Each structure stands twice: as structure tokens, then as C-alpha cells.
Amino acid sequence: MTRAQQRWLPALLIPVALVMAVLFGSVQAGAAVSLPSKTADEILAMIARTDVRALSGTVEQSAGLGLPEVPTTGPGIAPGAASALELLTGTHTARIFVDGPSKARLQVLDQLAERDVVINGGNAWFYNSADNSATHLSAPASPASHGHESMPYRSTMPTPEAVARSFLAAIDSSTEVSVGDARSVAGRSAYRLTLNPRSQETLVDSVSIDVDSQTGLPLGIEVRAKDQEEPAYSLAFTELNLSTPDAGLFEFTPPSGASITEEVLPPKPVPALAAPPDAGQLRHSGPAPTGEGWDTVLAFPAGSFPPGFLSNPQLSQALQPVAGGRALTTSLLSVLVLDDGRVYAGMVPIDRLQSAAAAQ
To answer: Of 71, 66, 63, 67, which is closest to residue 90 (Cα–Cα)?
Structure first.
């Protein structure tokens, strides 16, 4: 994957879904506070140096992407699976616990049910109290791991830090970075860093990140869409404790009578012994980016997604018919699924995706 793909792929796909866990949170900021003046570069350096490894807290999400309400149960919807599309409509509250790079717990607090994601080393549990279903995912030990394999949480757990870093990694000449008024988030003083696209084509108006003044940890993120008064997406801590959570929080035993599904991740190949990919594998190893900066469009070749993913009932309901395929349009992101299996995505209007598809 090229450097451009590595930088832009996370930022483009975050508004749609995160694998296994999904995004939650809403910016809950208090009155402005007084902090020593810092430049944008100084605040970026604070984020780069943050070494927070343990925390517990509550996050809230507010999503106004213009997505329709989607079903959570019914034919074809996997029991116990949290829907990324469902969690990107309305407001949701979750508790997050983290201890180091491979222990994390997420509790999504719905009105009538609770969903849990528990990651502990090479094991992960996904539980839904609504239907008392649980999925156990295990990662086999690889020869290079000396009997231990872990599932890093940082790229999948929905923390403000994970989302903020994806956008920060995309900063280049197409982005103006400025410092706004300091504020209070979850009872902590924070600097506000704002990213403004210089592009006139992107759907994104601005991305604001609230950065803890003591640790450099991103506490909240707010994404605004063009021509939309309220934030299109916001994620932040409303409560935060930086002490190490109780170890028992990362142990999970399914309740009595729960239906349990066992799944095993395929082992990672040992780099020194892995066979080199052939030319065909290299051609189809990842999406091809076109355009630059915030206008980037990612083109996924046919077969890039697991079988059945694009026919998921929840995703199908959100996709609308267009010439040559189906499309998902939100205030921040557009996705074009063509009848031949190709997929195009970008933080741009749908007509730009159609133009990119027609050119290939």
C-alpha cells in the first residue's frame, strides 16, 4: 500500500465503520478555560509525545450524517453483532477501559440492552444482552510470538485518540491547522486544534480536536460538514480517569444460557518464510487512490470485501440505487458500490466518485 493510501484510508473509512468495534462519543465541552498560549506545532508535538497507557471513562457519540435508521434484528443480521451503521445514527453512550496495548473493554449502553467488547491478549469477546449471544474470537500464537499473540486495541477501539490520529496523519499542504479557544472536556482543561481543508470539493468543513493540556491525550473530536449547522459527527469523553482499571474488567464469562460462537483468526505468516506475492496479488493488494488531500477517492477492486459484506441487510438498506450500482451518501462521506463489484469511497460528493469510476 502506498504512503498516500496509508495516510488517507483510515480517515476516509472511519465515518463508516471500524472492524469489530465501532465509533461512539459526543463532544461535551464546558466553558472556556485559560491556558498558556501554544502554537499548532507545539500541540501536535504534545499529541505525538502522549504516553497514556491506562484509562477508564465514559464517551458519548452524536452523529448527524443523514443516515436512515437501520434494523438491529432480523433475517441475515448476525446475533450479537453491533452495527456500525446503527451506531452512526443518533446518540450513544459507552464505557471504555484500557490497560496497555492489548487489554481493553467497551460497554455500549443502549436504552434496553448492553453490548460488550472485551479484548485480553489473544482473546476477544463480543456480547449482546438483547439476545444473550456471544462471539469468542481467538488469535493463535505465531512462531515469532513465542506462544503469545495479542489483539492491539488502538486501531479498533472507539476512543477520541484513535479517531483523531487518523485525521492528524493526513495533514499536508491541503490542510490549514490553527488553534482555537481552550476549553474544558470531561473536567480537564484542553487545547483545541482545528483542521480546515483548503479544498472546495470535499464535504468536510473542519475537524476540531480537543487535546488534554497535561498529557497531550485527545479528549474529543468534532467533525463539521459543509452547509450543515450542527456537527456531523462528534466523539468525546464525558468522564475520564487515568488510573489503571481493575484487572477483572478484562476477564469475560458468558452468562448462563448464552449462545456462543467460536471463531479463530488465521495465523500470521513468518516474514522470513512467507512466499513472495505474485504480480496479480500486488495489483489487487489494496485500494488505488486518485486525487490529492481531502479530495482523494479510493478505488477498491472487485473482491476486496468479504463475501456477503456488501449484501448485509443493514448496509443494503442504507444504499440507494444509482446508475450502474448503489450508493451511500452522508454529509461527510460517499460510497459507490458498482454492479461489477468495484467500490469507490471518499469524503467528496457522489458525482466525483462516479467520475472516478468512469475514468477507470
So the answer is: 63
